[in-house]
């Protein structure tokens, strides 16, 4: 039997643009995608820490090194430029592996540059001191 678990998380990244005129999705800097083991067209959950909204969409590859996080189309109704969001990706694993599974957590600065990468250990709290 398999279960869905958190694979990786981009924690508190800043939305750099919201474009209603686009058809949909979220565009993520390719460097951030690589760090978080996220892939173009992958399904992701987006939780807006600024306004509390949540949505499910898919990833488009952004310009490498740009720090861009673009909310496109309908997703732009859930976040505006400057909002802090969490982007979560999931994977299926055997239930027997769930206890040892440790998702990747990516921490960024205000410009969406990576300042930390760690495996989330069960019951460990992650904090960012700016």
TrEMBL record:
Lineage of the organism: Bacteria, Pseudomonadati, Bacteroidota, Saprospiria, Saprospirales
EC number: 4.1.1.11
Gene Ontology process terms (BP): alanine biosynthetic process; pantothenate biosynthetic process
Positions of modified residues (Pyruvic acid (Ser)): 25
Predominant place of localization: cytoplasm
Catalytic activity reported: L-aspartate + H(+) = beta-alanine + CO2
UniProt protein name: Aspartate 1-decarboxylase
Annotated organism of origin: Portibacter lacus
Role summary: Catalyzes the pyruvoyl-dependent decarboxylation of aspartate to produce beta-alanine.
Keyword Kinase: no
Assembly and interaction partners: Heterooctamer of four alpha and four beta subunits.
Listed pathway(s): Cofactor biosynthesis; (R)-pantothenate biosynthesis; beta-alanine from L-aspartate: step 1/1
């Amino acid at each position: 039997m398999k279960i869905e678990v958190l694979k990786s998380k981009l924690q508190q990244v800043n939305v750099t643009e919201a474009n209603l005129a686009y058809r949909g999705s979220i565009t993520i800097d390719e460097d951030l995608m690589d760090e978080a083991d996220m892939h173009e067209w992958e399904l992701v959950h987006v939780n807006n820490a600024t306004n509390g909204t949540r949505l499910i969409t898919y990833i488009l590859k952004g310009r490498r090194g740009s720090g861009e996080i673009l909310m496109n189309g309908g997703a732009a109704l859930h976040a505006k430029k400057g909002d802090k969001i969490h982007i979560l990706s999931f994977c299926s694993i055997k239930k027997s592996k769930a206890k040892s599974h440790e998702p990747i957590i990516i921490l960024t600065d205000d410009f969406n540059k990576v300042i930390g990468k760690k495996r989330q250990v069960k019951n460990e709290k992650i904090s960012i001191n700016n």
